[in-house]
Amino acid sequence: MKRIKGDIAQHVEALYPILYLVTFEEQQADELISSLAEGRKIYEWNMSGGRVDFKTKLPECDYCDLATAIDVLLKDELDNHFIVIKDAHLALGETPQGGSPSVAIARLKALASKIVEDSNTRATVFLVSSQAVVPRELEKYISLFELPLPDEAHIKELIGEFTENYGLKPNAKVVDALAMAFRGLSRQEIGFLLNRSYQKDGAIDMDDICLILAAKEQTIKKSGILEMVHVKEKLDDIGGLETLKDWLGQKAKVLKNLTDAQAFGVEAPKGVMIVGMPGCGKSLTAKAAAALFELPLLRLDVGSLMGKYVGESEGNMRRALRLADAVSPCVLWIDELEKAFVGISGGGSGSEVASRLFGFFLTWMQEKTGAVFVLATANDISALPPELMRKGRFDEIFYVNFPTEEERAMIFKVHLKKRGKLSDAVDPKQLAEKTDGFSGADIESVVKEAIEQAYVDAKAPIDTARLGKVIENTHCLKEVMKDKVAEYALKFSNMKIKSASKP
Ligand code: ATP
Question: Which of 127, 137, 186, 305 is in Cβ range 3.0-4.6 Å of 88 for a Cys bridge?
């Protein structure tokens, strides 16, 4: 925070006209602006109150919209002023009807150019919002700053202040564990949770971790773009894909001892991309990997990232990656990655959004220092930009094909064992021979169907013959999606991506 505050102070001194502060909490922005004010007069406009007193938030005059408020300022003499505009994404983004608040944008532009060109006007405009929505007309006047969520040291200070106020003395181990659990939450949320924990039993201790994790999950859910996935899957639940499993095992050793490994010269793992046929274990691997690494799994829903307003998609992507950074160490599972970059080379406004998203994602991947392990999954690699597939972006790219005969036998075993039905009456080898072209998902559905039929059939035993019958009546995915599968297979073999299965 110190570094960013210094950076913002320099921009104020150099008279940059508009500083856009992206923050999850307005109070943080208010404190920052107050600390930089040094006697300057502060005007505030917000969506609910119009022109308000910066300190008390009480209205200073009858409600006026942003355009009117800026018009008044344009006629004023501005010398050493801070102009704070809250809810900037609402005031400057597209209206729900699809129009844009063009008068407010035009007047803000006039104000910015007055600050830049008129040496008698000394003012800084602060736009404050939880999302960055930058109207194109204002782009060259705006400098964007993302105010960070509290880091571990800051969180420990907050815990210290709270416990001191209540005369509590939690031991260092508890403070460390709480600080870790609080990562990714705002100061206000941390304050509320400390209060709730204390009200519950008059103590701040290890028992409060569950409360914190539940609240954190809520915050992540509320973001609408990230979801915390609870995993039960283990590496043993994956039949086959041995090369990929070995690779993940190696990364687990590094991730679990990251500081030690880095001191030895090992680079922090960036992540892995798993591409390939549907139903063949990509999502399963994402879940098992998080469990193996003993890290929380955050799933990024690429579809919900794509907003309909200008800048919304980038804003969402930025928010999601920032949240993942704050929650780190974690595994960030980007499911159906290709959807984010659809139409990147197609031209038109869609491709512009896709290109910007892509650029932002690449930079983040390149610069990320937080312990976020990215696990991206995709079916249609032809939609992915070639730059993404280049070595170095991800630590490795794996191709998951339809399981081999040996793998199919292992997948039968996994699913029968999971349901307590693996016995000498079943010969996985025979079943594997009969299921050429079946995906893991097909095999799972054969097992489920056979068990259901056996139940209806007076709880008959599950044996090779019963499973064989179900297989005969199953149309596997490879058959159903013949054309698509052939198209993917050709693309994958052309790209010479490493196979997830042992040769
Ligand atoms: P999609 O591209 O359609 O999302 P996917 O490759 O992510 O497919 P999964 O969701 O991982 O496929 O697989 C679907 C189900 O099939 C899994 O829940 C799992 O039960 C089973 N399955 C797939 N592959 C395997 C495997 N190799 N071993 C065990 N089970 C598997």
Answer: 127
**Probe residue for ligand 1, chosen from 234, 244, 284, 442 as the CB with the greatest number of ligand atoms within 8 Å:** 284
What superfamily would CATH give domain 2-146? P-loop containing nucleotide triphosphate hydrolases (3.40.50.300)
How many angstroms separate the alpha carbon of residue 366 from the centre of ligand 1? 30
| Region 229-400: CATH code | 3.40.50.300
Beta strands in 412-494 (DSSP E): none
What pTM value is reported for the model? 0.76
- Is the beta carbon of 238 within 6 A of some atom in ligand 1? yes
Distance CA 433, CA 150 (A): 56
Tokens of 59: 């209205």
CATH 3.40.50.300 domain span(s) along the chain: 2-146, 229-400
236-280 tens-digit pLDDT: 999 999 999 999 999 999 988 888 888 999 988 999 999 988 899
Q: Which of 161, 86, 79 is nearest to 124 (CA)?
A: 79
Is residue 99 pLDDT above 60, yes or no? no
DSSP string, 195-216: HHHHHHHS--STTHHHHHHHHH
